[in-house]
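User: Batch of two.

Assistant: Item 1 of 2:
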Amino acid sequence: MAALGFRLSEIVLCLISFSVMAADKTQGWSGDSYDRYKEYRYCLAVNVIGFVYAGFQAYDVSYYLMTQTHVIHHYLFPPFEFFMDQASFP
């Protein structure tokens, strides 16, 4: 249950972060905006990837709580899950 709570809070925080970053359309004193920078677009893309991954993990945890089996039955799933948890949220 704690894992599901953490995954759901991760989804909410990613959604809040994305909405704040995407809604910022202010221009600076030189008429420049964040949309022009590759780093900003990279941050938005990583945020979307994190949101999708957290959504899948929340679905997997809730499915596991109901059926006692994971969605993906493969021996490489635990290393993949560990790698994604470490790599997607630096």
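Item 2 of 2:
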Amino acid sequence: MSMPVLIACSHGTRSERGAAAVTALVDAVRDASGLEVVPTWVDVQEPALPEVAAWLGDRPAVVVPLLLSAGYHVHHDIAGVVARRPAHAAAAPLGPHAAVIDVLVSRLHDEGLAPDEVVVLGASASSDPRALADLRATAHDLSLRLDREVALGHVGHCGTPLAEVVTSVRRPGRRVLVASHLLAPGHFHDALGRTGADVVTAPLLDERTPDERLVRLVLERYDQARARELATAV
């Protein structure tokens, strides 16, 4: 039996740097696994997920959301497409997950994080309470890893504005570092830099070779969904 196609579904961006960074992750997943990996997007870029699903037809496939929380795109866009295709399954999004925390910590250490400095998790806004719960869980896990309180702030039209959070946590003589909880460069990452923080870390993907921990995470989500489908079929 051939392995299901891995449909790598990301948000989409108008940023050339962001698009290139996500493409590099998709290519790295393909190279590491030997699977057939097909990229798709829920917004901005094409081909859109419904087109890719229709093109694959009845071939078994697993949609892996290259998204960091389970919001509208996961529960509506992706779930809706998969529900109409019995041979297709949906994996969990990439976050929350320990691998995401690992990369966030690495990005903070890239910026020389000191023990007494203040860290805020900066994320794109969402009106979906399930996405907000995921973001709060990530902030909590990062707090535990760093052994300090990590507040959560948002850029966008929902949630507590990141600029307000940065102002509220500032202490004399201490840098405020925003840990970018964004997959790749683009509009929202640029917005993090306008919130008054002393430092904004690089997103999880940038011009560097994709972190192996993220590559393994994508494949872990694929394997989990595939195992769940096999168990259901028994």
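Strands lie at 5-10, 37-41, 61-65, 88-90, 118-124, 150-155, 176-180, 199-200.
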